[in-house]
Amino acid sequence: MSEQLHTSPVDVIVLGAGMAGLVAAVRLAEAGLRVTTVAKGYGSLRLSPATIDILGYRPDPVDSPARALPGFAAAHPEHPYAQISPALLAEAVQWLKEHVETYAYVGDPDANMLLSTAIGVPRPSAVVPETMAAGDLRSAGPLLIAGIGVLKDFHPSLVAENLEAATAARGRAVRARPVLLNPPTDGDADVGALALARRFEDAAFRAAVVAELRAAVTGEEAIGLPAVLGLDQARSVWAELQQATGRPVFEIPTPVPPSVPGLRLARALQDRLRRVGGRFVLGAEAAGPELRNSELVGVRIRAAARVTPRTCRWVVLATGGLSAGGIGVDATGALSEPALGLPVHGPSPGETGFLPGYLGDHPMETAGLRVDSSLRPVGPDGEPVYPNVYAAGAVIGGARPWREKSGDGISLSTGYLAAEAILKEAG
Amino acid sequence: MIGGGTTGVGVARDAAMRGFSTILVERGDLATGTTGRFHGLLHSGGRYAVKDPQAARECIGENKILRRIAADCIEDTGGLFVTTPIDDPAYADRFITACQDTGIPAEEIGVAEALRREPRVNPRITRALVVPDATIDAWKTVWTCARSATEYGAKILPYHEVTAVTRDGDRVTGIVARGRGGEQVQIRAQVTVNAAGAWGGRIAAMAGCQVKISPGKGIMVAANHRLVQTVVNRCDMPADGDILVPIRTVSVIGTTDITVSDPDHWEITRAEIDQMLQSGENLVPGFAASRMLRVWGGVRPLFQDDAPAETRDVTRAHAVLDHRKRDGVAGFLTITGGKLCTFRLMAQDVVDAVCTVLGTTRASRTADEPLPDSQDQRFYQLGSRLAEREQTLLDEQLICECELVRRGRLEDEMARRPAPSLDDLRRALRLGMGPCQGGFCMYRAAGILHQLKHLSAAEADQALMAFLEERWKGVYPLLHGDQLRQAWLDDWIFQGVLDVEHLPPTAPAPPQEAAPQEAGPQEAGPQEAAPQEAGPRETATGRAT
């Protein structure tokens, strides 16, 4: 892998292989640029429920992200969405739908669906895998929430009871009842989501599940299952379950990593990247910018205990936020951006980073880079630090993605926009 | 018995073993006061040898006894006293002499040997002494004492807060407590023992007696790894942050000692945390850069006595106050001061005093009779859960990967307690105490509590949110580096994926229903302890084993 790094010239180095990095890399490679994606690990996309949440709360619930975005961006000028127009967002969503072939998406930014979480909260999400859409609580009839006994990360009784209470409180009560399935697992009582997804690709296992579901389901119920219905064959597994039970089937994301839908999306994007000629280097990280006369001419890449300068014309910095390590905080409270050493906006050492209440608006949550209108990280003077570095995804500060339900929407749209800015310059 | 820390539970066990009808009330869960907020060091006495020989003698005596009777709660780590660059090099000689005088086995080893045993310890140490320090799991000690006490007929009522100490003239006749659901429980007793630790002054005041107890706050910080395998102490006069204790899966640095005015309301300051990290750095270079899991504090009951000398026990380490002699109030004793390591001795002294009050002589047997699970006198081993897990690898789910908590253990613990909180389960099983701080296991535990019908969905939601709030208190003061990334991943799970912020709105928690009575008080003893005047809930028994 590191051989590739040394031998072929590249136009763009994309740092990070999460949603933002992969979207930018695919788009750039597709346009004919030579792209190398350098990632320390597989990226947190594989932990994501893979719903493209654009904006769910501001903090009141959002019905239409497309309509809410202009006002939201105006009220939050430091939010990444301040650089994203509704038209660009719609374009990015359309692009994603066309580029993830093995795993289809439905919905658009005009309206949020409401999908149950694994604890029974109706969660707003605009663009979702087709395997989840039948659970949209805005229109759903009665639900059968089916857990699988060997899976400890999905508790159907808690989902069903909370869901009934939560939907009633929102004004449209949805009936839900739980069932626990016990398909044979060769005596293994502790099967994780990924292992279960692989079992679902086995016809005999599916048949056992279908038999239990048919015995449990009534003629009017839709069936909610944990999001473990196959990995590479998810579309056919899901379709077969619907066909065999005669009922709509929908997946509910499980909370604990890895996320099977996240794996599906990551693999789909990575496959696409490979097919369009993008390179992917895993297990390497940026160790700083490669400078010539204070201009950035490349990235110093650390791999296999060696640091090698690698030249490129543009960099897309998509290393993630505080959780992914794209933004660091040391013991003194000092913030850093370790890949290129860019200035980070956020609480200084000694300033309050966290409040005592768990659900407080912790100042540290919005720490990250500040960017200009084409997503170039800027310094305290508001000017781009390097004219050829673009940021995408959670490394950009100003958002509270978990709370707003905006994470993958930010990553998709900024990844898309960063690529667009580079393509414009490349002519 | 008022107070469900090691002292109170120890007294309940000792009294029940001597045949007294005994009932214990605790305002929270057992071991939620100072007991559950300690670093885990079973002193050899070395720490006190120079400064306080009497306390040192008590420690080494109890250390030997506890190794016999509570082996399953103890990991025999051994202890090192090391002279670090900031310590007085001459102290080690005084230390050796003092250990000889107080009966503490202490052996000097070479620096090279000490560093071979503990490679992470500061290489600039100049002397090293080996003592029989160990670590003790305070929670396990309390649960097994409580279980044993219950087997001997004692009743243990957690979540019962004393609201009044009742008196008939100059005689205390018992207490009134309020249960979790607001129900009143009245308990009549011939002798009432105040073992409320740092809260003991308040209880004494309810009886019309004055006991000055100044709560001394000590903070501790847990690092993610066993940075050392031996308890490491600085070989100098006791000071802040001079002990590093490897307990279960973590290492704990402690502690400070700051007098606070209210044992329930105090803060941990950034300066205190920095002090602990710097102190750790002196013992183990690189300590401050380790992944820090959690910070917490406990309040020691520091007894300030200004009453005549004959009213108290002779030792300086702890004091048994008979309020008849002291304040003219009969039937009421206070036990205060002391240390976790000497809880058994404290309990013995208290029950001896109870015998005196009741005009009877019954000998304590706690020095000889092992606690449940410790009969075979085998010490706890760090790998024991892993060994247990390997036996059930395919058969059973692992609910907490960090602390290797099996589903069967969790379900047993849930069944033992009426309406357990997730924090109760954390203390009982170490569920959620590891690196992810409950990120992976707490959804599972809440789901299982609901599935097994221990809690309604609304109660399970509340339990989860209460846990997240409680956990946050211990992690946010030192969030940085990798542990911050972990906390953010946990937030992604709870806020991002599950959206717990928008759990359905719930009415205020309904009153707790009483659990079926499991064991009644023994009526045979000379002491009466019968709940009175309350509805059917009065006999609710907190099955706190």
Task: Give a verbal description of the structure.
The complex is a heterodimer of chains A (427) and B (545). In chain A, the strands form six sheets. In chain A, strands 11-2-1-15-18 form a five-stranded parallel beta sheet. Chain A starts with a helix and ends with a helix. Helix content of chain A is 30%, strand content 19%. Chain A has eleven helices and 18 strands. In chain A, helix 2 packs parallel to helix 9 (260-275) and helix 7 runs parallel beside helix 8 (234-245). Chain A folds into two domains: 2-100 and 264-426, 3-Layer(bba) Sandwich (FAD/NAD(P)-binding domain), CATH 3.50.50; 133-252, Rossmann fold (3-Layer(aba) Sandwich). Chain A is globular, with a radius of gyration of 22 Å. In chain A, a hairpin with a 2-residue loop joins strand 13 and strand 14 (306-311). In chain B, strand 10 (171-178) and strand 11 (184-188) form a beta hairpin. Chain B folds into three domains: 6-32 and 139-212 and 304-370 and 519-539, FAD/NAD(P)-binding domain (3-Layer(bba) Sandwich), CATH 3.50.50; 43-135 and 215-296, D-Amino Acid Oxidase, Chain A, domain 2, CATH 3.30.9.10; 390-416 and 419-502, no CATH class. Chain B is built from 16 helices and 23 strands. In chain B, strands 4, 5, 6, 13, 14, 15, 16, 17 and 18 form a nine-stranded mixed beta sheet that branches. The chains are: A alpha/beta (427), B alpha+beta (545). Chains A and B meet through helix 5, strand 16 and helix 10 of A and helix 14, helix 15 and helix 16 of B.
